[in-house]
Amino acid sequence: MSMKMRFGALILASVVVVASWFGFVFRPAQARLSEVNADVQRTVDEVASLQAKLAELKKLEANETELREDAEKMMKALPADPKVSDFILMVQDAANESGIDFVQITPSLPAASTTVAAPSTATGTAAAPSPSSSDESTTAPVAPVSEIQTIAVQLTAGGGYFQMEDFVLKLEHLGRALRIDDFNVSSAEATAGGSPKLSVSLSMKVFMLNPQPAAASTATTTEGTS
Amino acid sequence: MAVIAPSRLDVPVNLLPQEIKSEQRVRRVFGIAAAGALALVVLLGTVTVVQRMQVASSERTLAAEQTKAAALRTEVGQLREFEVLQASIVNNRRLLGGALNADIAWSRFLDDLDTTMPADAWLTGMTVSGKPGVTALGEPSLGTAQYQGFVTSMPALAGWLDKMSTIKGLRFVYLSNGTKQDQNGRSVISFTATAHLTEQMLSGRCQGEGSSCP
To answer: Which residue intervals of A78-185 are DSSP H helices?
Structure first.
């Protein structure tokens, strides 16, 4: 083999070796390194995020008692079912503490906030059920229809002014969330002397979570278009 | 006298033919080139080893981080119930915030009425409503109050209207009617009046982080 050919062969061999090394060794290894480094970065980020999450959860765990109390309070304020019996007991307690005579309660059926509530079917006294306010749509809460339901309640009580004031205050801070929309106070005695007995009629809404949000939304739409 | 003999050694003598000499030079250059090629191969090998070490090191780091992440995930999973509790509290509070939006503090309304009511006036009836609307002056109203009652005289009626107008949260306190009449042998004025509620009468329940709820 001539020297020229040897040189040519050496150069060719060098080029082939370098190209093969680059193509079959260096590039794949570089790609693997990039891939592993990207995985490392992702995992490091995930670890940082998990550490932050853990710190947050540990903080919540440290306040476990308070958190459970709050959750229970919220569940009581916005239960997943009507719990009318519990509501009656709460109102009766408030009436007893205020010294007011709790005379009548007329709850409607639970309904999505924007629908007209169905006529009442249950009463706390012997009084006949009355249809709930047809103005409900105008005073409806702005909470999403699919997540919350409203029970319209008519309540009547009797007592003095200060007892009534205390009763309303207690209702506003009752464990169960409610909203007084209208009330009417009347007295048969039109004299300035003494403390006349008042009759108080309250129209309010009591709230509960919607157990079937999707179904309620569909029902609302159907009702609205019929 | 010294005789200086000419140095024969200073004269280079090469008996190799020129072709052989040239061939030797080419072989030397080829040897150098071959050594260069070998050095290149060694360099490539070194780079490969360094690269492999880097990959192995990164893989070890990855494994360590993945182990750490797995442990953290387990720990987070064990405490997940607190997050669920917190989420349910936040969600219920949000729902109540919507439900109690524009809620009127009726207890405050009654308290203000009680503390502002003049001694020469008394109410026989009152109807309040939380329906939003507008006053006769076009101002926004969050609800209305209608009063029925008695005062002892017309100036007392004017005094009652002025007093009621001082209540924060009441706007456009307006007389509907005032009529003198006889009651149990004495002259009194029966009246009806209305007032509008403003946002100062809002309860603010569940409306912010620090507000009471419910």
So the answer is: 84-98, 161-172
Q: Which amino acid is at B36?
A: G
Whether residue B35 lies within 8 A of chain A, CB to CB, comes out as: no
Q: Is residue A40 within 8 Å of residue B67, measured between CB atoms?
A: no
**3-class secondary-structure state, position B173:** strand
- pLDDT tens, residue by residue, B56-77: 999 999 999 999 999 999 999 9
The pLDDT value recorded for residue B126 is: 94
Residues of chain B with C-beta less than 8 angstroms from the C-beta of A76: none
Q: How far apart are the first and last CA of chain A?
A: 101
Q: Does A45 touch chain B (CB under 8 A)?
A: no
Band the pLDDT of B81: cuts 50, 70, 90. very high
Q: How does A99-111 read in b/e, with b if 16+ C-beta sit within 10 Å?
A: ebbbbbbbbbebb
Q: How far apart (Å, rounded) are the C-alpha atoms in residues B152 and B120?
A: 6
Please, what is the Cα angle at A149 between A147 and A155, to 5 degrees? Answer: 155
Per the CB < 8 A criterion, the answer to whether A53 and B76 are in contact is yes
For β-strands B133-134 and B140-141, DSSP reports them as: antiparallel
Contact B26 A183 (CB under 8 A): no
| pLDDT-based confidence at residue B183 (cuts at 50, 70, 90) | confident
The structure's pTM equals 0.70
Are residues B86 and A186, on separate chains, in Cβ contact within 8 Å? no
Cα separation, B127 vs B147, in Å, equals 7
> Considering chain B, what is the average pLDDT of its residues?
89
Residue found under tokens 């203000």:
B112
What SS3 state is found at B39? Answer: helix
> Cβ contacts of residue A7 below 8 Å, gap of 6+?
B30, B33
ipTM above 0.95, yes or no: no
Total Cβ atoms within 10 A of residue A3: 13
CB contact under 8 A, B30 and A143: no
Q: Which residues of B136-159 are buried (b: 16+ CB within 10 A; e: fewer)?
A: eeeeebbbbbebbbbbbeeebbeb
